[in-house]
Specification:
Layout: H1 2-18, H2 23-46, H3 53-62, H4 65-90, E1 92-98, E2 103-106, E3 109-120, E4 124-134, E5 140-151, E6 156-160, E7 162-166, E8 169-178, E9 185-192, H5 196-213, H6 216-219
Antiparallel strand pairs: 1-9, 2-3, 3-4, 4-5, 5-6, 7-8, 8-9
Helix pairs in contact: 1-2, 2-4, 4-5
Length: about 240
């Protein structure tokens, strides 16, 4: 009941803030909240939610490890689902030509293109693109580097994107080809909200699997009736 109510509240909040166009995203986020809330409340109900706090804690402590493994696994799945839906529905993308000194707004940050610099690697040469990131206050909060590499053996160009993590979301900058006159560079900028939840959810699921495997009941088999047992309970020779 509590998990379903939490999911409905999430769906309603998303629809009110963004609108009906975010209906599919709202359902996905609601499902993620339902999984997390259900995973948390299930062991609480098993321990007797509503009883005195001391008794509740003792009952929780005595629950089998597999119960907490299930909790972490289901909650991790919900966290991962929220991350996937957020990135798919709310990602911000900007594709533009940037010249040294120019700034672009993406995801609430101001990205300034500082310029290009050649650099030689062990088996490749690359043209490094440098960027400075400014927050709301206008101060530089991060510096990023991306590059276009050319490997000498195969003469194959590759792109090394610049990635910066801010809390639970990430900023991606992918440098492209230079303009024909060489004064700028085509740049792809992406703000991916809540993307790190994908990996945090996977870690939670891994912890859940470990707790379940650590449950003694799953490692020691329960005694079973012999296949050749006689009706009276004796075993045939």
């Amino acid at each position: 009941m509590a998990a379903g109510l939490a999911a409905l509240v999430m769906v309603a909040v998303i629809l009110l803030l963004i609108g009906i166009d975010a209906g599919v995203a709202a359902l996905g986020l609601g499902l993620g909240v339902f999984l997390i809330a259900g995973a948390i409340t299930e062991p609480l109900y098993r321990a007797g939610l509503g009883t005195k706090s001391g008794l509740l804690l003792r009952r929780l402590f005595n629950l089998p490890r597999a119960s907490f493994g299930t909790m972490f696994a289901h909650a991790g799945l919900g966290v991962t689902l929220i991350g996937i839906v957020s990135v798919s529905a709310f990602q911000e993308e900007v594709i533009t030509v940037m010249r040294p000194g120019e700034a672009v707004e993406v995801g609430g940050y101001s990205v300034t293109f500082e310029g290009l610099a050649p650099r030689q690697g062990p088996n490749y040469s690359e043209l490094v693109s440098r960027y400075s990131i400014r927050g709301d206050s206008g101060t530089v909060i991060a510096e990023m580097e991306g590059s276009r590499r050319i490997y000498e053996v195969r003469s194959m160009p590759t792109t090394e994107a610049a990635i910066q993590t801010f809390g639970i979301h990430q900023l991606y900058i992918s440098p492209g080809d230079p303009t024909p006159d060489g004064s700028g560079q085509v740049t792809h900028l992406y703000d991916k909200p809540l993307v790190t939840l994908i990996w945090l959810g996977a870690v939670a699921m891994m912890i859940g699997g470990g707790l379940s495997l650590a449950d003694r009941r799953l490692r020691i088999g329960a005694p079973g009736r012999a296949k050749n047992a006689l009706p009276g309970g004796s075993v045939a020779a």
